[in-house]
Amino acid sequence: MKKLERRLSLSYVVAIGIGGMLGSGIFVLPGIAAAKTGPSIWLAYLLAGICVLPAALSKSELATAMPTSGGTYVYIERAFGPVMGTISGIGLWLSLLLKSSFALVGFGAYLAVLAQVPLKSVALISLVLILCLNVLGVKKVGKAQLVIVSVSIIGLIALIFGGVISVQPTNLQPAFLNGNMGLYAATAFVFVSYAGVTKVAAIAEEIKNPGRNLPIAMLLSLVIVTSLYTLVSFAMVGNIPIEEFSTDLHPVYTLADKVMGHWAGIAAAVLGVITLISMANSGVLAASRFPFAMSRDRLAPELLGKVHQKYLTPILAIVLTCGMMALVIIFLEVEKIAKLASAFKVMMFILVNFCVIVLRETSVAWYQPKFRSPLYPWMQIFGILSGMGLLYVLGMSALLGAVVIITAGLITFYLYGKSRVQRSGVLKVYGHRPAAFLLYRRRQNAPKAAGQHALDTGQENAANLDGALATNVRTVTPLFGAERSAEMLVEMSAALAQGNKVQVVHLREVPDQTRLADVLDDDPKVNALNRRIGVMAREQSIDVDFDAAVTHDLVQTIQDISEQTHCRWLVAGWNGRQTANSIFVRNPMGWLLTHIDSNFALFLDNGVRYIRRIVVAIRPGRQNPEFIQACDRIAQFYGAELTLMRVTMPKATKEELQELEAQSQALLSSCASPAKLRVEVSADPVQALSEASAEYDLLIIGTPAKENWLDVLVGVNKDRFAKNAACSVLRLTFKK
Predict the structure, then answer these.
(1) What pLDDT does residue 451 have?
(2) Strands 728-733 and 464-465, sheet pairing
(3) What is the C-alpha separation between 658 and 654, in angstroms, rounded?
(4) Do 522 and 622 belong together in one domain?
(5) What share of the chain in percent tops pLDDT 90?
């Protein structure tokens, strides 16, 4: 299969982003929204643009991590699992078809300026035409869309200059007809105007340098459209009395006719007709792909995934989408359509912000975005809280809409999808009980049959290993491909193995949607790694067994390997991150730490290649003799000198110092390697150890005590001792 060519430049992507937003949001919505807040409608547009910013940044990050994954629906499913994937797929489908229905109503209103036609009848006839175009596969021409966007921007800028000059100050008073709540309600109501800002994420695979251009394009298009919406709506309320404006479904025409004359108004009406019909057509095209994608993912009936043999379009998905739009146009009022569309889009943007938090905090292996949202996690928290506030002010209809989506999603999943999908979301694996218990039942590990020492390669959800695992090994070392030096990590594992066999497994995690059989071919990088570790093992007389695996569930596979090999130590690479530092989720290392039975060693490689001097730091209250024994074995393996460093507070008495030295000497008495004690007096143990670490090649520390709740809340996620060390760091956790 050919990859899509990365040919879209920044300017073209910005145009696509603007085109995704310009439409009913400014051509139809301002008058209805002004009825809620009055002349301050321009401020509502500005606030809505600010509330959209976190979702735009979050989706930029998600799109650069999963550029071919298929958009918001798959991001949510990957993070939360197929249950939430089904709910979000239905929510996104409904929000898009509602927005497209609203555009068709606006299309009828602008067409009525040019000819006396019934509003809903014209909207329905246009819908039939759009249905035929989508079924026949008649695609919109990209250049034509670019021309429409360009003309719209030029026309709106002309209206801004003409309208701002002729603003009547009396029309701007009183600014707030219904106080602050009226402003908040209008902000929530116009939120849907910015829904298209994230559409460019769907073409991330075709964008040149997406890690840079995608977030820039989203932000630029958001800033441009927010400025246009704010200034145009200000010109509208400044020129059109609020009594007339609040019932106007074609405000762009009204403004152009009032400030620039009759023919300018006609031109604005023509522009509105073209823009809104184009927007409705692209909306049907995008909306129909959600049931189509869900069908392909086995979360919706297979019929919706059928492609017409002649026209090569998902005809049933298109017909279903257009049928729902017809019902919306016939039975719902214009204001309710816009309100529900905004509500559904707000809910999806809240989930997008949650996705980034879940994937960042878990640090799953496959999540490697080229762009990372700034001000994390505060930007996402602001997006979530502001979204919840907007849902609240949208009122009961928005809450009922949420209930309908959730109910429809649960029914669809449990009646159809549950028996057909085996995927699980990141939250299921790593979520603490407060985050996961409503959606998932905890996985119970099935007991392994006696004598089973190789992972099952016959099942799609199992890891696929190249061969049988070694039995009764002392240490297991999983490699993920991001280690600074795999040889150094295996060497550290051998130091803990006490001359016994070391099992090394290279693990590659792939998304659930990828068939494992498709990625089982030999990887040259894995073959090279096997060769390098083999050379190192022969030179140092280390008994190493190397294997490779592809899996959908990285940590579960590591746990299975740990159980099947009966290892005493699991030795893994580390970036200095805490292992259980989030209220709702834990990262993979934290999950393993609480689930596997073997001891755990995390190695932070800071580039030191020759271990000659080792310093051991025992945290307060941690006097485990096994800890010193393990440190001694490592020192013997390297022929290194061992130093036990104790830090005491300046206020410590002479008797306390003597007791500390006696305890420490007792711990060192059993060491076979050269060992000595170093006592430092300091009010800051982290600083003292950091300064001392410059004199050593390896720092060995134990597991920290439970993090302070404030550290959890503000996102302090680095082990302070590891973060400040000048040498490599090994953290040991004992469980058996």
Answers:
(1) 33
(2) unpaired
(3) 6
(4) no
(5) 20
